[in-house]
Amino acid sequence: MTTQYATTQTDYRPSAAARPARWAADTVATMREGARLRLDYSPQSLWRLDRVIEELRHDHPPYEAVARVLRGFGAYAGEVVARHTGGEWWATGGTHWLRTPDGRLWDPLEEAHLAFTGEGSLRGLCREAAGA
């Protein structure tokens, strides 16, 4: 007996997506449980995360205290961009970035860090990556 397997593009995620996808899913769960904030992988939800990052920044915590949270926010932003543009995660040497179908490379994890310093925006990243 022969079993046939069919894989569609939506069924396949490159292995580089495994960690960021998990970090994003953890962020969705944590924000739902802890902050009662629903994240639905929409570009509009990034506005809410930018506000959360702004609130964090105003509390002046050391970066080390929020680095994991920001990594999750960046991974979530990358997942939003990937889902809305057809982008794919790429990884090299522990660094993850996103490549959109037009060939541009994006670093949503770094963008979350920049948002924390007041120099970036997750919704701005999405808007620019989507060409809107």
What would you note in describing this structure?
- By secondary structure, the protein is mainly α.
- It has a single domain, classed as Four Helix Bundle (Hemerythrin (Met), subunit A) (Up-down Bundle).
- It has five helices and three strands; from the N terminus they run αααβββαα.
- The chain has helices at 18-34, 45-58, 63-85, 108-116, 122-129, and strands spanning 88-92, 95-99, 105-106.
- Strands 1-2-3 form a three-stranded antiparallel β-sheet, with helices on one face.
- It starts with 17 loop residues before the first helix and ends with a helix.
Features:
132 residues, mainly alpha, Four Helix Bundle (Hemerythrin (Met), subunit A), three-stranded antiparallel sheet, 5 helices, disordered N terminus
Largest sheet: 3 strands, antiparallel
* Poorly predicted ranges: 1-12
Write down the domain tally.
1
Sheet-strand content, in percent, reads 5-15%
Would you spell out the secondary-structure blueprint of this structure?
Layout: H1 18-34, H2 45-58, H3 63-85, E1 88-92, E2 95-99, E3 105-106, H4 108-116, H5 122-129
Antiparallel strand pairs: 1-2, 2-3
Helix pairs in contact: 1-3, 2-3, 3-4, 3-5
What can be said about this structure in brief?
The chain is built from 5 helices and 3 strands, in the order αααβββαα. The protein is mainly alpha-helical.
